[in-house]
Write a structure and sequence with these properties.
Blueprint lengths: L15 H5 L4 H6 L25 E4 L5 E4 L1 H8 L8 H15 L10 E7 H13 L5 E6 L3 H7 L5 E8 L2 E2 L1 H9 L11 E4 L13 H13 L3 E5 L34 E6 L10 E7 H14 L5 H45 L3 E2 L8 E6 L6 H10 L5 E2 L13 E5 L5 H17 L1
Parallel strand pairs: 4-5, 4-7, 7-8, 8-9
Antiparallel strand pairs: 1-2, 3-10, 5-6, 9-10, 11-12, 12-14, 13-14
Bound molecules: 4'-deoxy-4'-aminopyridoxal-5'-phosphate.
4'-deoxy-4'-aminopyridoxal-5'-phosphate (PMP) binds next to helix 5.
Length: 431
């Protein structure tokens, strides 16, 4: 990879709104409260002694429990730093060093990490500080509807690039960038990618694909948003039982980032709990700090109580038990995927086209003979009591008809899947 494309001046990427984000004087003070010997008459912290909570015990499914009390509970209940609780932030930095080849020596200097209220908040904050109204942004087509709903009100020119089972097709991206009509739209500064178990298509990029896309982004100087909430939900090919016992998560885009152009979004939602609302963004110090300025005014920080529960759990577990937990989740979703695919084969053979996903929780099915799934899925399927999402929900251009539907295999039981796919089969046949 070409080291000459290293980003030296991040300010050129920052939106007008982002450049106006400045550190909040009060928030900066909060970081100093716990310095040894400091007497605080500064911050507007409420007094913990007035809070009604004495301790918090969380029982774990393994029979043990976590107890939050004393200073740990005080920390959880009080305002805290916008980067997140110090110890949790440290644990997550160590995780990123371990998984993504980030340099432990430069943590907090060249790169940083911020804990957010779910990755959704981090994505939204990053868009706010990097994209101006009317800017162009590149995404996969289809892409995550939750990000589209952040982008649309900003009236961004969302340019969707075609995908295959390995994600965005590099030649299509290169064509779009090489032939950009500068008189019509501003050239994009950001590309939004979901590399693993993509929502909605289930596609997962292999290493070759990641390298090809990274090189194009480097050539055209795009910042990469690597939105990877399904990274830990990789469970391998159909009928590959060897993946039962090994964790092979592969290289991420941030791990190959020699230019400093990747902002990576991780999430606890699929591995600890979605209701905790915890995610974390990792990337170049300049950009994460800008996001932090935004967090200082948006939500101050992610929920202290949620962070404290996650922190207690992760320090109890260490990486060894974290890995064990991930393996059990992967095995769970592998079984689900296997069952779902066998039921698609049973009920929908010849009626749909799809690729069996190797990660995540979605199967993206093209309904043969149907040009637009909107009314079939949004009306007729609901009458028959089957919930699916019509493809159009994931298209930047929502006027375009889509023959696809997204099905999730995460929560339905085998019997429910069987019944749902039977109902879908009769709906397609009636069409
Ligand atoms: N990105 C993608 C691709 C997702 O699928 C989701 C959740 N559905 C999110 C982000 C948001 O996740 P979180 O719960 O961490 O906010």
């Amino acid at each position: 990879m070409d080291m000459n494309n290293q980003i030296k001046d991040y300010s050129t990427f920052i939106s007008k709104r982002g450049s106006l984000k400045k550190p909040s004087p009060i928030r900066e003070i909060i970081q100093l409260v716990n310095l040894p010997g400091m007497i605080s008459l500064g911050g507007g912290l409420p007094n913990n002694s007035t809070f009604p909570f004495k301790s918090l015990t969380v029982e774990l499914k393994d029979g043990t429990s976590l107890e939050l009390k004393g200073s740990d509970l005080d920390e959880a209940l009080q305002y805290s730093a916008s980067y997140g609780l110090v110890k949790l932030n440290k644990w997550l930095k160590d995780l990123q060093v371990r998984n993504h080849k980030l340099n432990a020596e430069t943590a907090g200097k060249e790169w940083n990490l911020l804990i957010s209220n779910g990755s959704q908040e981090a994505i939204s904050m990053a868009i706010e500080v990097l994209c101006d109204d009317g800017d162009s942004i590149i995404s996969e087509q289809p892409t995550y509807s939750g990000t589209l709903s952040i982008l649309r009100p900003l009236q961004l020119n969302i340019v969707g690039i075609e995908i295959d089972q390995f994600g965005m097709i590099p030649s299509k991206l290169e064509d779009t960038l090489a032939n950009w009509d500068h008189s019509k739209h501003k050239f994009p500064r950001v590309i939004y990618l979901i590399p693993t178990g993509q929502n909605p298509s289930g596609s997962t990029m292999n290493l070759e694909r990641k390298k090809a896309l990274y090189n194009i982004c480097s050539k055209y100087n795009l910042l990469i948003f690597e939105d990877d909430p399904y990274y830990y939900l990789q469970f391998g090919e159909l009928n590959d039982n060897s993946s039962d016992t090994k964790l092979d998560l592969g290289e991420s885009l941030i791990s190959m980032d020699v230019d400093g152009r990747v902002l990576r979004f991780d999430s606890f939602s699929k591995i600890l709990s979605s209701g905790l609302r915890l995610g974390f963004v990792t990337g170049p110090q300049y950009l994460v700090e800008k996001i932090q300025f935004h967090e200082q005014s948006a939500s101050l920080h992610a929920s202290g109580l949620s962070q404290a529960v996650a922190q207690a759990l992760l320090y109890r577990w260490g990486f060894e038990n974290w890995d064990k937990h991930l393996l059990s989740i992967q095995n769970f979703y592998r079984q689900r995927r296997n069952t779902f695919i066998s039921l698609i084969e049973k009920h929908l053979k010849g009626l749909v086209e799809y690729n069996a996903p190797t990660a995540g929780m979605f199967v993206w099915m093209k309904l043969n003979g149907v040009t637009d799934t909107k009314s079939l899925i949004s009306e007729k399927a609901i009458e028959k009591k089957v919930l699916l999402v019509p493809g159009i929900a994931f298209y930047p251009d929502q006027t375009q008809p889509s023959p696809y539907v997204r099905a999730s295999f995460s929560v339905a039981t085998e019997e429910q899947m069987d019944e749902a796919l039977k109902r879908l089969s009769s709906l397609i046949k009636d069409q």
